[in-house]
Amino acid sequence: MNALKLIALLIVFPLLLAATGAWELQRIDMDAMGVAHGLNRVQLLLAPGVVFFGLLSALIGAGALAWIHRAGKRAQQSQVMLISAFLEGRQLLPGWLVGHIVTVSVAVVLVLAYECLALWKQGSLSSFEVKLALLALLGEAFCVYGVWLLLKRCRGLLKMFEPTPRQMFGQLVRPDQAPQLWRQVEAWAGQMGALPPEHIVVSLSPGFHITACETWLYPEGLALQGRTLHLPLCYLALLSREEVGSIVGHELAHFVGDKAEYSQRFLPLFDGARRNLENLAANLQECSPLEARLLKPVALFGNHFLAQMHNAALALGHNRHYEADAAAASLAGNTTLASALLRMAVLGPQVKTLLETYLDLNKHNWPAVEDIAWQAITELQHRELKLSNHDLINPLPHPTHRLPATGERLKALGVPVQDVLASATRSTSTPVANAALDAWFSDALTLCRQLSVERVTAAVNQDTQYTEELETLASAVEGEFTLHEGARLRGIVIVAIALPCAALLLFLLMLNGLAPGRFSEDKVLAFWVAAGLACLGLVWGARLIKRSPLTALRITPDHLFYNNLAQPLPIRDIAKVEVVDSAGLYVFVHLEPDAPWPAARATGFGVPGVWRQKWHRVLTLRTEYLCIDGERVHSSDVLNLLVDYINASRAREQLQQQAPRVPEAATQRDFSV
């Protein structure tokens, strides 16, 4: 689907512009005299310019798409070709894209300039033609403004495939802090013929992984260049030295031989470019609607190129992780690696749950923080470890890649689950874990304590920020608002027009009844139709007059009140709100899937109420417009008012539950006009 959109944007649209230029060229009258002759000479420059820039833009777009398609095919041939194609694309495609944007923009401006001159050349213009000329000038100014916005961003677009640093939370471990760990990792790398890591980071996050991306390390604020190996502290304590070696060996295997080229040159740049495009897509939501429209093709173009490279990488690297497992097994054997993989799968859910539990407990005791990592390890020795089907089906955690399922990796190693089940589910021991950490680090106790303090501090700061946001949302509204239709004047005007018309038409019909044949049958039928419409107008006008002062919607901090609902609608049951201003004001309230459907009650004539669409779970309120205290409220203000009350209600609910998270759908972008 993205490819079809790109073909339409990059090729079809420029060709339509070129065709428009050719049509404009045929419309030029060279026999004109005076001012028209001078304008024709200008148009003789504009029309070929439209053709030229339209064809040039289509050529650039077609060339870019063809190059991407060819690069994708070429990248599937070998790892070397993949890296070469990606590096070439990073350099060539942004320039082509910027060139395409500029040429299309120039062509559009030239088209509008031509049409403005064509209207001016006609001499005396009718009022309609004057309006058309002003509209064309406004469109040209709009396009010029769009070109200016794009040119402002061209420098950034040229860097659209530049990598952005990864973020990692943890503690940098230097050789003097963990001499044995560094020596062992370098020894494993030497045995495998792999490039050793340049940095080692230890944290409480799950998963072993290594990256060559530029990494921004929190909370120290360090920028790490080169290969960075991440080690989870808890698993260093719970796995044996051989098991740790086999898992680390899997990561180091990605930097052995020709795989090092892939891991050092392709993956860091690819992941960084993907994060850059994700940031661009996120920024589109904060841009003006015009900028978002103009930049959306840029995001489509970049994602199309990365998708081609990703598909090629998948085709080449389908067995990459299995090959890394096979290489890692050379350190301690297939059985040891299988035991380590299965043990991590068994320990993973329990370690995660315990860390989260002790993290929450220590947040309430801040700043007196205990060692949450050691608390989790100590508690784990009292729990029985069991293997579940999910442990075999689910992959081990990894920040950037989806690893194969653990069961599939054991099959590839040729090790049955039963052969390593006892080793993987062996009970943990605090003295053994303590000895393992002391063997890896020179001061394991201080490191564990420091990681715990940093993790709890980050969580407390995050909770504080969320709480402040919730309190701001909760205090944004006070009291309640009553909205009414307020269309009394409109109803009076409708009645004032419909009443005389209805009286006249009924009088004419009565005359025809007293003297048949006075009017033809066609006229009588027209009188009946007009009289019916006039009566409907009377009813509609009377309805507007009656319902004008009546409450259409009452908003309180926790409920919405509608006249024809038996019970107030709790705000917590609302999933989304939309306000549409088109031939009247429509307020759509979408309910949560599990929310009870509100019951209806009967109301009198002219009382405002909602239309209940149970199949869509939507309540629709239709009014001419809405007023507060007799003053008309714009549709965007109605939406903002509803959003503020919904956010405030959910924020209060979260604060009461003491949950450190902002409620979902609590931002303006989740609601639309």
Automatic annotation (TrEMBL):
It is found in: Cell membrane. One of its GO terms (biological process) is proteolysis. Keywords: Cell membrane, Hydrolase, Membrane, Metal-binding, Metalloprotease, Protease, Transmembrane, Transmembrane helix, Zinc. The keyword Glycoprotein does not apply. InterPro entries: HtpX_protease, Peptidase_M48. Its cofactor is Zn(2+). Pfam families: Peptidase_M48 (PF01435). One of its GO terms (cellular component) is plasma membrane. The chain crosses the membrane at residues 46-68, 96-120, 132-151, 492-513, 525-545. It is a multi-pass membrane protein. Its main location: membrane. The keyword Hydrolase applies. It comes from the Bacteria. GO terms for molecular function: metal ion binding; metalloendopeptidase activity. Residues 236-412 form the Peptidase M48 domain. This is Peptidase M48, Ste24p. The lineage of its organism: Bacteria, Pseudomonadati, Pseudomonadota, Gammaproteobacteria, Pseudomonadales.
